[in-house]
Amino acid sequence: MTGIAIAFLLLALVLVWGGLIASILFLRSRPELAAYPAGGDDDHREDDAPSIRDT
């Protein structure tokens, strides 16, 4: 491998694994919401019947 290929390999590894680590840390610090704001109530339509889609 040439020097430029190794440099790009290292850059790609840092971007991919660094992004994964940053995402994991972000999600650990801000987990999914337990309560939703007004207007965001779950109506449980998918619990009653199959979902209806316009196709």
Structural account:
The model has no long low-confidence stretch (mean pLDDT 82). It is built from two helices and no strands. The chain has helices at residues 3-29, 45-48. By secondary structure, the protein is mostly helical.
What attributes characterize this protein structure?
elongated, 55 residues
Global geometry: elongated
Encode the helix/strand succession as letters: HH
Major sheet: none
Low-confidence runs (pLDDT<50, min 5 residues)?
Answer: none
Write down the Rg: 22 Å
- Our measurement of the CA-to-CA distance between the termini, rounded to an integer number of angstroms, reads 51 Å
Compute the average pLDDT: 82
Query: What is the number of helices?
Result: 2
How would you describe the oligomerization state of the chains in this entry? single chain
Strand segment count: 0
Give a quick summary of the entry.
This protein is an all-alpha fold and 55 residues long. The chain is 56% helix and 0% strand.
Secondary-structure blueprint:
Blueprint: H1 3-29, H2 45-48
